[in-house]
Amino acid sequence: MNGTAELTKWIFIYICLFQCVYAQRILEKPKIYFLNAGDTVENNIPGLKTYCHTAMSKYLTHIWRTMTMHLNTKSDSYVLYDGKTPEEIHQKHNENQRSWSLSLFDTGKHKQLKINPFENICIGVYIDSSNESEYIMSLTETRINVWRLTMMIIGIIIFWFAQILSRNSLFYYACGIIFGVTLSIIILIYMAGKLIPRGRVMYLMFAASMSLYLAQVLWENTQLIIVQYREWVMWYILVTSLISFVICYRFGPVTNKRTKQIIQWFLQFMGLAMVYNSSHFYEASFSCCVVLVLLYNFPKAVLERGKRYWQIRFPEKRKLLSKDQYRQEGIRQTRKALKQLQNYCSSPECNPWKTVLRLKDPIRFAQFMEGEPHLSEYEVDEHEEEVSKILEKDEYTDDDDDDDSY
């Protein structure tokens, strides 16, 4: 009996040691994963896992680049944390564990997490249950985000045409209707948050918190609400739009110049904000805002400076003229200079008597001013003889060079 009890004790000790070793191996598995675009990680172990992305280099061609972490899971019993480093993720997780399970630092139940590709970003996934711990985390990259590109284009259009829009009646009614529908939704959310009675201070705090909670729920379930309650949503938008239109029609479009100027400034500010937030590459988007403001206020000066900088940075290569091009250019420039001389002598700025006193042949100059050629027939013949002599000399020199080469 004693031998059997001793054997049973040692078997139990070995089983405990084996479980401890197995548990240690599980704990020693890496809990931090550094993902690149296209990477995928499968998980089936409960606990906190951290997925990080290292910041990529900033280039102008990456201005509309975005990255998304996809959490593929069938369970909803998970908690997400975001931060700059794994230590920050672990700190938030520890704070949540000590805060009576209120999840004060989680980021909500999102399965698609947009991240900034130019910053160090970490996402923590915590699942407590081993039965629901299976999920797949992947990282995808979008080289040109169409939505962000469209956002920048719309921002530029709003900024550039803000003066026209602020004085347009159709734009006034459209904005009034949109503002009325949005304001009515906000009022409904606030009134729904005030339904539960509390004390004065707690009443206000609870009403505000309930309003924010309802707004978040509506925003996250917008698509589901539109699909399931399509008719109610259409009637609600139609009625609130009609009421907003009637109110705008009652007061009429804005007529005060200063009010129009304020609306223009507001639209331009909104356009610049859209341009700035259209990219995670904030240095490039801010430069776009600066260039847009300069082009709007100083178009000629900016274009001239840009053209001058471009010419200095990328100077044009000079082309050498051939002999025929050189002669043609000489004839063209000579005619141009003679025409300028005729115009100057015919203008009031020229004193004809002083000009005549300086000339050796005033009669010939007068004939030139009346349209006759500036050269006589003798001078033309003499010039042609000199040119022919130069050409013959060049041909003779070329022949001598060819003989020497043989």
From TrEMBL:
This is Nuclear envelope integral membrane protein 1. It is found in: Nucleus inner membrane. Keywords: Membrane, Nucleus, Signal, Transmembrane, Transmembrane helix. InterPro entries: NEMP_fam. PANTHER family: AT07567P-RELATED. Belongs to the NEMP family. The chain crosses the membrane at residues 146-165, 171-190, 202-220, 232-250, 284-303. It is a multi-pass membrane protein. It comes from the Eukaryota. Its main location: nucleus. It comes from Lasius platythorax. GO terms for cellular component: nuclear inner membrane.
